[in-house]
Amino acid sequence: MEKYLYIALFAPLVSSLFSALFTAQKKKQFVGVIASLLIFTAFASSTVLLVHILNGGEPIHVTLMTWMATGGLNIPFGFVVDEVSVVMMMVVTLVSTVVHIYSNGYMDHDKSFNRFFAWLSAFVFSMMVLVMSDNYAGLFIGWEGVGLCSWGLIGFWYNKESATWAANEAFIMNRIADLGMLIGLFLVYWNTGTLQYEEAFAAFPGLDHATLVWIGIFLFIGAMGKSAQFPLHTWLADAMEGPTPVSALIHAATMVTAGVYLVIRSHPLYDLIPNVGLFIASLGAFVAIFAASMALVNRDMKRIIAYSTLSQLGYMFAAAGLGAYWVALFHLMAHAFFKALLFLGAGNVMHAMHDELDPFKMGALKEKMKWTWIMMTIASFALAGVFPLAGFYSKDAILEVGFVEHHYIIYTVLLVTAGLTAFYSFRLVALIFHGEDRYTLFGIHPHEAYKFMLWAMSPLLILAIIAGAFQHTFFELVEEALNAVHYHIHSHVTLWIMIIGTQAFVLASIFYAYKKYARKGIKVPDGTSETEQSFLYKLLYNQYYIPYFYDEYFVKPYRELSSIFWKKVDLKVVDATVDGIAKVLYSTGSATRGMQSGNLSTMLRWMVVGLVVLLMIAVAVGLAARYSAELSQFLAGLGV
Amino acid sequence: MLEPVNVSLESLNLMTLAPMLIPIVGALLILVVDLFKSNIDKSLYVMLSILFLFTDFMALAGSSSAFMQNGTLLGLFDVMLVDGLAIVSQFIIVVASMLFIPLALTSKRFHEFSYPEFFALFLFMIAGFQFMVATDNLILIFVGLETASLSLYTLIAMHNREKSFEAAVKYFTMGALAAGFYSFGSMIFYAVTGSVEINQIATVLVANGFSDIGFVMVGFAFILASFAFKLSLVPFHTWAPDVYEGSSAAMAGYMSIVPKIAAFIVAMRFFEFLIHSGLVWVEAILYVFVVVTMTAANLWALVQTDVKRMLAYSSISHAGFAMAAVMIGTTQANTALLLYWVLFTFTNLGSFSMLWISRQKKMLPGQNSDHSYEKFAGLVQSSPMAATIMALFMLSLAGVPPFALFWGKMYLISAAVTSGYTVLALIMALNSAIAGYYYLKLIVYMFMKDPVDSRYEKVIGSNLSLSLKTIIGIAAVGTIFAFIAVDPLLQAIGGFVYNSGY
Lengths: 640, 502
Prior knowledge:
The structure holds 2 protein chains of 2 kinds.
Chain A: H1 2-20, H2 29-54, E1 60-70, E2 73-81, H3 83-106, H4 113-132, H5 136-154, H6 161-192, H7 197-203, H8 209-226, H9 234-238, H10 244-253, H11 258-265, H12 267-272, H13 274-297, H14 301-321, H15 325-352, H16 370-384, H17 390-404, H18 408-433, H19 451-466, H20 471-478, H21 492-517, H22 530-533, H23 535-541, H24 546-592, H25 600-626, H26 628-638
Antiparallel strand pairs in A: 1-2
Helix pairs in contact in A: 1-2, 1-4, 2-3, 2-4, 3-4, 3-10, 3-15, 3-19, 4-5, 5-6, 6-8, 8-11, 10-15, 11-15, 13-14, 13-18, 14-15, 14-17, 14-18, 15-16, 15-17, 15-19, 16-18, 16-19, 17-18, 18-21
Chain B: H1 9-12, H2 18-36, H3 42-70, E1 73-75, E2 80-82, H4 84-100, H5 116-133, H6 138-157, H7 162-193, H8 198-207, H9 213-230, H10 239-246, H11 249-255, H12 258-276, H13 280-302, H14 307-328, H15 331-356, H16 379-382, H17 384-398, H18 404-418, H19 422-448, H20 455-459, H21 466-480, H22 482-499
Antiparallel strand pairs in B: 1-2
Helix pairs in contact in B: 2-3, 2-5, 3-4, 3-5, 4-5, 4-12, 4-15, 4-22, 5-6, 5-12, 6-7, 7-8, 7-9, 7-10, 9-12, 10-14, 11-15, 12-14, 13-14, 13-19, 14-15, 14-19, 15-17, 15-18, 15-21, 15-22, 17-19, 18-19
């Protein structure tokens, strides 16, 4: 079994290195094909491992080599395939395979085709390291690795100013959170003396409560950065500057869920500190409704989906924070499928519309792009949580958790959010695919995507439909690893009221969205209508003015401060000191180079001078040794 | 009546002589070949030299396996001493020579290589160096030293330029003075102890508790002066820049490596027993030499306008750096010195070869020196590959990780720290920082300035041929991938040094 672990881990690395060989060259189709095949190999190996674990096999644990062994610190490169990591591996490799194949079509005309695959596969490798590591140090390496690859892929079109800006924003925002994460890791190591999961978890119950709370908080700060939770959420929407397959893989299905994974992985810690858990859950619920509200009015197709991702991550944190780790993981998995599908569908639309992102300029695309329409509709149904699609099972479970645990406020917030989700999802579908054609006005001739791209998306489509059926298998799989319990609502009547009520609410939202946006006569908003003038609309459209606030109160003062430090401190103090030292050295060199006159007599003289000095020392030492008795007598006479 | 002398051939252990005899035979063969047929193409002689050097290498491998089994070998009335130091240093000498000799196959014709004597002298010189390191007899060291030096003077002069003659004469005159110093020093030690073998001298001196400390110090002063000349320690270094400038770049690179390793080995054999006997003054004097050499040479290198002269001063500084290891004298330090020199061989030979490929037969009007910084300005625009490789060597010389010399510097400085020479380690680190300036200066010229004169473009690489490319390639690979080789090298060298008792 170990060999499958190595294949799953290293096939993406090989793929990345192979593609990297051709980065400076013109597009080579075989690069994309081979990269896709290698990622598929990783997927196949993960499947073998999943079957092994499902059949009750022991978790596989390997130690590749010792990475660091100094003093009391011993960090091996260890990897583990257990119930939790195998689920993550399946999600990562499956979505990666789909995205790799899809990218062959999507990046078809891009001149940096080869470079794209090098980065994309490097991302998959980093993500595999992140989820497979058996210690926090390895997790952190993967964590930084995905951060780096995300930077490279968001800024993939580096000659676009906005893309590089977004890439830097994502990277810097994550750095801030990573500091928290690092402090968390230091605290773990400081207090338990190890970074291995098993040993650290065994040591946690022996620590005092305050320490655990701090560890929990700092680790969660790291998770907040990677999963873009409030207030570090702004980068995710801006990250949509990257190519759409990247958004599907990194900013929907995998990387952004790393924070959730971290909380799930550290569940023995969060079990000990329910207060922090409650905070996580509350923040999650807040982010869910906060992000959903921004998605209501946004006019950028990809940003809407990004806000929806943010909102769904909030759901996951809400579940994880309440201790329902298996529910969070299940929603993570289901969400990965339908959200990646949604993004890839959006990619098709973008391609068809020549990178136009405003859904108001589309409309009636369902005739031209039938399959994309079907896929996006089903994905949206799944996202909205309509029975019997994947999202129904996972989201419903989260709502039940809130209800059963008696956190009614969280429950209510999440319920309202479910309605908002349904509304903005179908607002998007309605604007893109229904109503009347508004794109001819802009001279666009849409066409359906390549066949193989649609085929590549089909596994996601199927999983978005049927993933809910695996809920029971999934529960049994992770039952032991995550101390999973069923959340049953005891009264049948309450249960049915809840389910039917939720479904009715969601369907009503969908119906309303259709009614409002699928009708004829929709105009491209120009900022004059009454809604657009309203305060609420402006507040939501400008993302609660948070980016503006950050710019005004963090970025600008920081730049001001940097400029002061540069001009006053660096130039006047540091540079001047360094230059001064250099000048002294330089002039010493110039002043003494006269020694090198090139005159043979002078040169011989220098040699003799050297010898004479040596001889004088020698004679002095010799005399001093010979007459040491007299000398000490003499010195004693002088009173020394 | 004199007793008939009876010596069994086995006790002579003639195998200890084999590595030195091979290049001598090679040199004689080259002369004989020339006697029968003159005007043969130089490539034959290059190949013959490589062949004999390779045989020499194999003989050394034989000695080293014998050393591994039986420990130090003595031979020829105990004059020859084949210990770990001798073997490692001979390996360095032979390998560096094998890397040097193909540099003769340039695309332009140069005067010296048309003489077979050049190659014969070259092989004689190698034999001389090998004798120097494989004995602790002061007389044989002297013979080896003079054989090698006299050959070297001639090799320099054969470059056939006014500056070369000047350099050779200067080097010869100063070398003669240094040889005088050496023989005076030896004489004094012989007078004091009645022996010319270093280990005997040590035994006698330790036995009588250095009662004649004054004479010992005088002898030490003479010997130090002569080796300071060979190692170009300040103020005995004055020959180095002129001689480097006068000789061909390839020869200059060679001179910065091979003669010095031979001198280092002798210095180790001679000075370390003095230091270990607790002569504080010896240590103090060496300390001053080390610090002054490193620092002063660095400061002079800063103000040079010619790359070759800059490299000459930097080689002086590197020698001072390595001399610190002799002064520290622990096994770790000696190992570090040899490692440093192996890595330095690749890097420095590479950087001088890069100058060699741009050698002009005639200087352009308005050009003051062969390899001025201006010549390399904007090199990246005309030949990015050459600029990158040159930059690589410069970064390695500056000690930037992970290139070769970084490891050498690191081990040397750590040897200083573990032996308690913290201040020295600090001075070494500071000097590395200063050195960074003039190495990076060349990189700045190559990558950030615009070409000064378009005529230089044609000059760079004009001397390039396949064999030069190969040598530069080997040097570059050695420099880049040093990080893989460092650990095994350190193990091997450490074993040799430790088992020789140094």
